Amino acid sequence: MKKICLDAGVLDLYLSETRTKQVKMLFDDVKNRTAHAHVVNPVLSEVFFHQCTTRGAKEAAIQLRNVLDNYPIELVELDVDLLFSAGKLRCQHASTLSYIDCMSIAYCLHSGAEFHTTEKTIKQIPHNTLARLRVVRYAW
């Protein structure tokens, strides 16, 4: 089974009214357990924020809870070493990567998971650590 890590943009895209076929197929793979999805815990806060600004807090909670209840997504707690790795990435790429992205990327680099993201420029960041990152990109 393929190990994947979802960023906030992919979850937001799934929850949007303009869900793409590519994202629908990804979530079908997760539901059918042909892909083992992981989400770094702070990503949920970012998704909730995005959904809250467009749908309101109550609907954001319902939609996000629905995804977590209906898809076998593993929530990931970061240990101190991964937090330090995320901090180092943020230090090196503060102008191009968010804290949330750095946490997810650190987890992917440590665990070998593919990073599923909507970030447009992530593979253009010049750094040998990021060259090891396997990225699958989704467009809005």
Describe this structure in words.
- With 140 residues, the chain is an alpha/beta fold.
- The protein has a single domain (2-137), classed as Rossmann fold.
- It is built from seven helices and five strands.
- The chain has helices at residues 8-15, 21-31, 41-55, 57-70, 80-92, 99-111, 128-131, and strands at residues 2-6, 35-40, 73-76, 114-117, 135-137.
- It has a five-stranded parallel β-sheet with strand order 3-2-1-4-5.
- Helix 1 runs parallel beside helix 3 and helix 3 (41-55) crosses helix 4.
- The model has no long low-confidence stretch (mean pLDDT 93).
The helix-and-strand class reads alpha/beta
Overall helicity: 55-70%
* CATH architecture name: 3-Layer(aba) Sandwich
Q: How can the largest sheet be summarized?
A: 5 strands, parallel
Distance between the termini: 26 Å
CATH level-four homologous superfamily name: 5'-nuclease
Strand order of the largest sheet: 3-2-1-4-5
**Shape estimate:** globular
Number of helices: 7
How much strand content do the residues show? 15-25%
Q: Please trace the helix and strand order, writing H or E for each element.
A: EHHEHHEHHEHE
Number of strands: 5
Low-confidence stretches: none
Rounded to an integer in angstroms, the radius of gyration calculated over CA atoms is 14 Å
Q: What does the average pLDDT come to?
A: 93
The total domain count is 1
List the main descriptive attributes of the protein structure presented here.
140 residues; alpha/beta; Rossmann fold; five-stranded parallel beta sheet; 5 strands
